[in-house]
Structures are given as C-alpha cells and as structure tokens.
Amino acid sequence: MTKLIIFGGTSEGRKLAEFCAERRIPAAVSVATEYGASLLPAGSLLEIHTGPMDLAAMEKWLDAQAPSLVLDATHPYAAQVTENIREACRRKNLPLLRVLRGEAPRAGSLKAEAAGDPAVVTVDTVSQAAEFLKNRPENVLVTTGSKELGAFMALENWKERVFARVLPVSSVLAGCEKMGFPGSHIFALQGPFSAEMNLAMLKMAGAAWLVTKEAGRAGGFEEKLEAARAAGAGVVVVGRPRKEEGISLEEAFERLKKLEDGSGAKEEAVSAPEPVPSRLLVLAGAGMGTVESMTVEAVEALLRCQAVFGAPRMLQAAGEVFARFGGERRPEMLAEYLPGPVFQWLEAHPECGRAAVLFSGDTGFYSGTAGFLREVGKGKNWEIQILPGISSLSRMAAALGKSWEDAAIASRHGRDWDVRGLAEKSRKVFVLTGGDCRAEQICRELSGLPVTVSVGENLGTGRERIVTGTPEELAGEQFASLAVVWIEEDEQ
Questions:
Q1: Per residue in 375-423, pLDDT tens?
Q2: What fold characterizes domain 120-238?
Q3: Cα gap 48→58, rounded to integer Å
Q4: Taking Cα atoms as reference points, which of 451, 120, 119, 459 lies closest to residue 289?
Q5: How far, CA to CA in Å, does 282 sit from each of 65, 125, 323?
Q6: CA separation (Å) from 179 to 148, 149, 188, 335?
Q7: Which CATH class for the 393-489 domain?
Q8: What are the pLDDT digits (tens) for 173-197?
Q9: What architecture is domain 279-390?
Q10: Can you identify the CATH homologous superfamily of domain 4-102+244-261?
C-alpha cells in the first residue's frame, strides 16, 4: 500500500505508529517536539517529521509525501492544529480520518452524590479553575500542562500552595523557573500515571485540590479521579473545547488492516468547511506596567478580551485592571509573550475569539510586536490591532524636563552598542539596560567623558528613583536590572 501520514504527539499517534511499524506499513509521522519523536518506534519504513507546522508547511509536506490516507491523532485540545490539517487535506484533495480519544466517564458531582466520591467541579477554562480556587486556601496539584500555569499565579501565596506536574523537558523546566515556581513544587515526569502514582503526588503536595483537563482515558482521567477519591481531594475539571466527529483508535486499526489487504473502501477526500471567522489579537503597550500609565484605549481593549498574555509584571497590571473595572469577569492570564507559545495556546483554544498581548512601554520601541506581525504574515487567521503605550524614553524625558527629538537612542538589553562612542558623537543619548548590562556598568564605560548621567529605575511606580551625577559618581551605585540611562553632554 502507499504511504500513510499520521499527525501525532499523543498516545494514540504513538500506537498508530507502532501498529504501522509492526506490520511494515510505510508511514510518515509528524510530532511537534524532539521528546515526542523519542517515544516513537524505530523502523526503516517509518519516517518521522519533528517540529510544529503551520498550514503552509503542512501543504508542502503533504505534497512531498503524496499519501493515500491522512490520520489526525493530535491532542483533543489542539483545535487549531486539527483545523489546519483538515484545510491542508481539503486543498490537496486527500482523504482524512480524525482519530478521537475515548472519553472517560465523569465521577461524582459538585455535591458528591455517590458516597466517597470527591467533589468534581467542571469549568470551561483554566482561568476559571484558578478563579474557583482563589477562595480556597488549600494546596493545589495542577496537571493541565506548563503553558497555562500562569493562571495560578493569581492565587494568594501561590508559591507555597501550587504544585505542578509537567513534562521532563529542559525548556519546560526553564519556563517554570522563569515564572518563579520553586523546584520543590515541580513534578517533572512523563505519563501515563497510575492511580497510585497520582495519589502519591497528591500526598507529597499535601493537595486538597487536583486540577485536570478532561483528557479522556489515554490522558489518565479516570486514574486521577480514583486518586483524588482516595486522597479525599476535590477535582477541578477543565472541559473539552468542543465535540468532534471521528473514529476511535480501535476503528483506525481496523481501517488500516482493510487498507493493508485491499479489502477496505477508498476514503473520500475532505470537503470544504464553512469559512472560519477571523479572531482579534490586540498588541498593546502597557506603559510602565501600572494601570495609571496605561492608555484608556488599552484598558478598554483588555476588558473585552478572553485571554491576556505577557510577562508576569504585565499580567499583574492586567489583573489590577480587571480587579478595578472588570466586575466578576476574569480572562485567561498566561505568562507568555513570545509568538510561538502564544499562537500555540490560541490554536488549541478556538473558543477564544479575542486576546491581548501586553508589552512594557510602547509597541514600537524595542517591543516584541514585530515578531507577532511576522507570524500573522505566515497565514494565521488573526486580525491585529496595535495600541501604542508610553515608552520609558518618553517617561524619563518628562521626569527630567528634557526634549528627546534630538537624542540618540540605544538598547543594551540583549544587544551590543558602543555607548561611549555614541556619547562622544551625540549631545544627548538614551539607553535601555537589561539582561547582563546594568546601568552602573554603562557609567563605568563613560568614565572620563564630560557628561552628566541620569539613571531611572522603576519608572512610573511608587518605587521610582532617578539619580543624577557624573559617570564616576554613579559607577559605584547599585541600580535595578531594568533601568534607563540619560546621558547629556556638559555645557562648555
């Protein structure tokens, strides 16, 4: 038979790949990560593609493979990926089967009607799960994945209360560390997990609540409920995004057997779907990271969003916006600000039609906005709205009573600039610091020049501090890692 395509990254995809390897059925398997590839069987007739693909990349890959059948065995929450697979198959006139994960029956209810069952609370989103837990002071074990841990940072004493189970991947662990999760609160393990293993983790965490997605049998949903029942813990279940049509894993095996021996009917190509409406992504400058320094336009846009992304400091500001003006509304809050992770989450949550990414300062001043615009240019179905903010340059110049239209501007945040050379050529220089470069280091580089230096830290907050002096005077100071430097030539 001719080659099959399997879009995997799940236990169902792995089992389909194993089935093909055992029966020597030529197949190409697509997984998003190296870790997913490492779980697949080795075989001369099994070709593995590693790395995420957008719609254009899928079309190109399908052209190269020319398969007789495509199987979509991606995760039930990866809705945008499934949509892209379907559209690519439609454009290439290829037959497609969606392989569904078997749903596990839900145990209990909020009232725990069956004796001994845990309370099971069902919510639609991870943010709703976090909101439910805000008024419950007990420890929590979160098993919904690393990408949505940011929502639980809104809980009081979250560093002491929240424990997370994540994949044992270096990038995932680095992300947890960046968010501030203590290493002792991270279970870095690969499933599947037995009820006994889940119970052991609940006990180690001292958790009274378990947060899980309704991931079906393959996702260990039943084992989690059994463990929670044994521990006397409550369960907060994030429901599936939508009901899908497709076939079970067992039915997929039967289809492959029939195709292998030639007894199966030819699958029909994918028909055209109904047009998908575009969704709105707001890229907003948050000024100094306080509600007071945001524009009214940015605040109003946030209040209409279902999900907000940004660095932890930006999410704190967004949380304050909703606390003051949002009433009972609380969107998903996710500590991501790079295009890849943001679009990956949005693709997995098609129910989110309006989202925002918050950047410090202004969207056009050393901002991450450009990266998002490049991604949208690759065919993502998002309408973009850019809302500018107050830049640190504007704030610093105003605080000093200076004009800045004639200032040279540089950033040493992850960039290499010869600030001394710039100061020798320009009467005014503004520099952003960050990363390995601190303000006191720049002052040391300026030593001996006839200039006056002003360093501003925590601009626009109650901890704002601006210090002015010679480079030599300020070289011995200690400033915050994110500071700005104003350099001005002394009057002759």
A1: 776 656 678 899 999 999 999 999 999 999 999 988 877 667 788 888 8
A2: Rossmann fold (3.40.50)
A3: 14
A4: 459
A5: 37, 20, 20
A6: 11, 9, 16, 7
A7: alpha beta
A8: 888 888 889 999 999 988 788 999 9
A9: 3-Layer(aba) Sandwich (3.40)
A10: NAD(P)-binding Rossmann-like Domain (3.40.50.720)
